[in-house]
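Entry 14. Two folds queued back to back today. First construct below, sequence then structure tokens.
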Amino acid sequence: MKTSYYRLIITSFIIMGLAAPVFGQSSADEARKHLVRGMAAIEMAKSEAELTAAAAEFKKATELAPTMAAAWYNLGSVQSKMGQLKDAIASYRRYVILAPKADDAQLVNDEIIKLEYRLERASIELVFVKGGCFDMGDTFGDGLPNEKPAHNVCVSDFYMGKQEVTQGQWKAIMGNNPSHFTSCGDTCPVESVSWNDIQDFIQELNSKTSKSYRLPTEAEWEYAARSGGKKEKYAGTSSESSLGSYAWYKSNSGSKTYPVGQKQPNSLGLYDMSGNVWEWVSDWYDKNYYSSSPRDNPGGPSSGYAKVLRGGGWADNPRDSRASFRHALDPSGRYDGPLGFRVALSAR
């Protein structure tokens, strides 16, 4: 939606003149100053900081003159540019209420629909995970040295993404698709992403949704994969013969990814925590960390050379698909392979 700078200024002065009796001439004059400053700022804006400064001017104008339609329109426009979808929708709606007969009212309504669609595509379904204590690591006696010793860990309540983040969700937030299996479609997990790439995604996701998504910790991931800390070898079962009902892995994947949520979930209702794509978690990797891990909400070492991945992928055997199996890679590496993730959210 593009409206010329000068037309907006003229429109704003007309609206301000009509609205001045409603909120007082002094407030109108002051609001006009902020509106013009904001328009000048957005016209020249080339960075996020400059857009933020423009938004602050428009916000101040709406506070001084709540019925000033032009200020709401411009606030919505800059919020949309900044990816603040919910705020932009609210500002645009306010504009339409104040100026329902404006020439561009229908265009603004169309923009609201587009933003709502983007917000819906960006939304992530979460499952509440009641916190508790469990024995983390090799509890079956067939694990690798970095899964030992099994040790008691307690995690607080949190939310976990019901499914792996999809290609459609990544595209809605980032505007691109780094995946190798793009032909799989928007409902397939995004893959071939580095840990660092995911931090950029999460930052944009939080900006657009006004939430505080993050990667789960290694302890949270294993607790959730094992259906709330149960003694489960895989996510949903301990039987290798039934693993194919819960996971896409080497024996049944045909060497490719699949749309999320096609297999059975574990008893918490979480899908694909074994198989399909590996899932990055927040922790730095240390093969000996379990020997010194704190009991309550461990977050991993303070530094390291690699980040942890969990769950196995479509190319992996049952051993690597176990809930306790730990893999680690350079956080900057994209690796053309089944590396994806799901998000978590702390319970407040």
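Second construct, same run, same settings:
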Amino acid sequence: MLTKKISLISLGLLIVGAIASIRNFPSTAIFGSSLIFFLIFAAIIFLIPIALVSAELSASFPDEGGVYHWVRRAFGEQWAMLAIWLQWINTMIWYPTILSFIGGTAAYLIDPALAQNKVYLISSILVIVWILTLMSIFGIQLSSRINDICASIGTVFPMLLLIGLGFYWVLSGRPLQIRLDAASAIPALTQSSNWVSLVAIMASFLGMELSGVHVSDIRNPQRNFPRAVLYAAAFILFVMMFGSLSIALVVPVQDIQLVSGVMQVFTEFFTAFGLEWCIKPLTVLIVIGAFGGIINWLISPARGLLHAGEFGFLPPIVARKNRYGVSPSILIAQAVVISLFCCAFLLLPSINGFYWFLMALSTEMYMIMYVLIFLSAFALRLRIRGPAIFFRIPGGLWGLGTVVFLGIFACLATIAVTFLPPDNVDIGSPTTYSLIILIGSVAAILPVFGFFIYKRLFSSVTVS
């Protein structure tokens, strides 16, 4: 039976759908015109390399893929457990940021001032995450088609509308909050503070490795997959660049709200153009789009962590599934972890500081996992001889080595700058912020050693 192949355009749209998100625009916009340089730079050294490496790994192991299995084949079970744990804990840290975005956006239906109210945001996050957890335990999920509709209505349309309004703002001669010239677009690279923008930009590119699973679903993948990656990367760059610039051009950089910056700029646009009645309908669309994007994000990481149970890293009672095919213990543990991360509100002086801290810590965890993916790709290429099944990065070991070098450099640079506070976000004392990031990093990684100890002492599971 022949499997229907997807088109080049469809694959490109799948990649775009996995990466592009309107909620990332404000955190990139706070860096003004310098975001142009860093977006292009990050796409070259990270976005394209991780897509190509993921495609090769997916093509080499089409029957048993994913981060856990890639790293296990290259370096063994313990490193694989670390990789899947980093992917899981990253999602737990990331979840409050998307939930705060939903809460901050929904505030525009009641009172925009609520978007900067800690009690409101914490309450919104906790209510939403526990409702979704209870729904997930009983296996209540929206279909992928409904998710796609939600994302199309509430993500793609607002993105293009924001960019269109930004262009109209400039063409109509209205005042601009940043300069658009070559001098301001190329930052002083010797200043470490300018490199902090990599955190926000890399956070906008996370998830590109998911595109590799489609490498066998496209005709002539050796030729068409790189093209799809380049087309998708170009579109992602377009929407990220001009969407972020639309915010930076209208709202003073120091006033951009990371949680509700999207609705903040839409309010400015609609008020200036006499379209205030559009604010609430658009708010509803964006909230629907955000829900469509996260509805399955509680179950997906739980399923990933279940791989650890299959290899003996979790007690059987924790990995036990109910009749709906999910582990209630893991889902409840996830909700508890997400709730605990909300306590960062109490440690940081501002909503922007809370959002940035979680985004930086989440990005750091994901970057460490990406380092393992890049190293695994190179190690496995050395072991696997013969022609590629579907796709292999051109240029032999030199081609792969160049891609891996660029990717690891991007990851390590991003990890380093997560410890540097941005100048235009109120995070309190820079020393305190760096210390909180360090403590958060240790606290996020440390539990994985407990799984190693459990496996060694209590588990008899071995998988070849």
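Quick look at the second one. Confidence is low (pLDDT under 50) at residues 140-144. The chain has one domain: 8-458.
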